Structure formats: C-alpha cells, structure tokens
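Preliminary data (for renewal application), guanosine-5'-diphosphate complex.
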Amino acid sequence: MKLHEYQSKRLFAAYGVPIPDGEVATTAADARRIAEELGGPVVVKSQVLVGGRGKAGGIRLAQSPEEAEQLAAAILGMEIKGLPVRKVLIDRAAHIAQEIYLGIVIDRAAHRPVMMASAEGGVEIEEVARTNPDAIKKVTIDPYLGLRSYQTLALAKGIGLKRELFRPFGKVAQGLYEAFLAYDASLAEINPLIVDDEGNLLAVDGKMVVDDNALFRHRDLAAMRDVDEETPTEREAREAGLSYVQLDGEIGCMVNGAGLAMATMDIIKHFGGSPANFLDIGGGAKAERVATALRLILADENVKAVLFNIFGGITRCDEVAKGILAAFEEVQPTVPLVARLVGTNEEEGREILAASGYDLVAAASLAEAAQKAVAAARGELGA
Ligand code: GDP
Ligand code: MN
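Predicted structure:
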C-alpha cells in the first residue's frame, strides 16, 4: 500500500523528521484559506500516488493566497499519469539551497534494510543509479543493532554535507528508520530532503510503501487507503476478476494461472522479446473475462503481438477457444496473434480457433509460441 506525500510526511514528523507547515485541501477555496493562514508564499502540491509530479506540472509555487486558489483549481482538475488529482497539499514554501535524497528499502539479497543517500536529490533515484551510481552512498542496517550513528555519519560525509549538518542529518535518518520499522514499510523515502537558506534540513517530499501483509497491525493506515491508487486499467481488471499488471514491453500475454504467466514472461525474455503485461485470466476463463482481458491488452499501444498461452486442466481448451472468439466479436484484434493451447480438449480448442477464420498462428510448445510471438512483434512472422 502506497501512502500519499502528506500522509508519509506526517508519519515521518511523528518520528522527529522536520517537515514544512501545511494542510490538505480538496477545494480551491480551502487552498486559499490555508495559504492565508500560513502567510507568505506556498507550494501547491497534487497528491497522487505517482512520482514525477513536479515535471507533470502538479507542483506549483504560489506567491499569494489568490494565486494558491487559482493554482489549486487548475491542479485539482488535472490528471497525472492517468490518476485524477482529488487533493492538494498546501505547504509553506521553502527556500532551497540544496536537495538531498534519503531513502530506505529492503535489500532482498542482503535480507536487510539498506539506507541510501545522495547529494543529487530532487531527481528520481533510479535516474541517478543509471547515470551516476557513485553518487549514491549506502549502508546496510543490521535489524538487531539498528541504524548506528557511525553509519549515518558515513552517509553524511559520503554525500559531502557540511560538518554542522552531520548531527541534524543523523536525527532525520534515525527518524526515517524508526518510521520505516514502526509501519512495516518496504520503502520510506525523502526526495528531496532540503537544506534551506538558513542551513536547516527539511523533508519537502515524502513517500512510503507499507507491506500489505502487515496492514492488520496498522488499522490506522488501512483507513488511509486511497481508492485512486489504481489506474483505471488496473481497476477494470480487478473488477473483472483478472490479475493484471501493465509493463512496458511489446508482447501482450493472455495466460491462465499466475505461475504459467510468470513462466511465459520469462520465456518471452529468453527469446529476446519483452512482455507488455502480466495477466492471469484465472480458472474457467469465460468469454466475457477473456474479452475484458483482450480489451485491456489491446488498449496498450505498445502491444505489437498477443500471445495466448492456455493450459487446460479443469479449464477446458474448447471453452477458452470459444471465449477467445467471443472476445474477437467484441474487440477486433489489431495485431498478430499467437496461440498455444494444451491440455483438456486441446484438439477441440484448436479446431475451433482454426475454423474461425481469424488469423491465429498456432504453436505446439511454449518455446515455439514465445519465438513466434517475438517474431510477430518484430513484424518478421510472415503469417
Ligand atoms: P515529485 O516531483 O513528485 O517528486 O515532487 P516533490 O515534492 O519532490 O517536488 C518536486 C520539486 O519541486 C522538488 O524537487 C523541488 O525542487 C520543488 N519544490 C518542492 N517543494 C518546494 C518548496 O517548498 N519550495 C521550492 N522552491 N521548491 C519546491
Ligand atoms: Mn520528490
């Protein structure tokens, strides 16, 4: 479960991390009132559960309450990466002298939390990791010993902070780690942690992801769950009973069973392609559900080919084949299709597809199916 910036920052603040004064507004009039109360310039910040809001125009500086009202009205009407903005955070504006990155994630290989810091704050850490990995300093936290002060000192020195900031930086780092632990987080991040023109540290952004399996221990958080966390596509998938995760590849995958879906993605990669999605259509695979799945896959404009990989067990291949045809009635396929159907009633299933008149490329094995799908996506399959 992802928490909004304002939620994350309030939790961090409860553990001693300094944050700007501010309040959340759902209307432009509210935004104006909050700006009046704060006095002076404010930042109007869209609260959506995606990164890069700044670049998308979802974070704006307002010099007056009137301007805050106008900007809030504009931002509340925006959609950022498919998510509608329903709340804005009005924070007292900070004078930024320096932007730092500070975050904690679980390092699965080390089986421990790792704290990362970088002097290149304000940009996405993945970007820094790609372009300038040496700029990221890391310490691994022993859960029994906790975060030690020599570790935060090493980070502070490593990113070139001034000596007088060593102590306050240590306090922020400890606070962040305590919040991370207390809420069973898988990620806690401040980006940027700023140094203001008076030399004080301030967390102007915050992000926290809490392990869903631990939510039963945090009733207070469960109430914070935001229904807008899902993109419209993910919501449609969930309501149709599909497990769907959109990725950025070019081969749409329609598979029954989560394990088979994972294996399908792996083998597509193995043959040099890349999957456009993870999709488990589940058992039974009724026509309606297959149609919804196909619509979701084809709505992704990156998709250059679709691979149907169906294993018939209790689910019968002929039934799935009928589902696929019924789906075609509703959603006209616009890209090459490769189908592999094996298991219960596979013969009947293949006959149904072959007799349909649709141009489906048949494959007998998973390897063959993946190779054909990769070729089709490259426009190299002369079908
Ligand atoms: P993100 O784009 O979703 O990561 O949102 P952030 O909250 O990190 O804001 C993006 C950028 O806006 C920051 O890196 C800052 O450069 C700038 N920003 C955020 N808050 C303030 C502020 O109070 N004052 C000023 N001058 N800039 C700010
Ligand atoms: Mn940020």
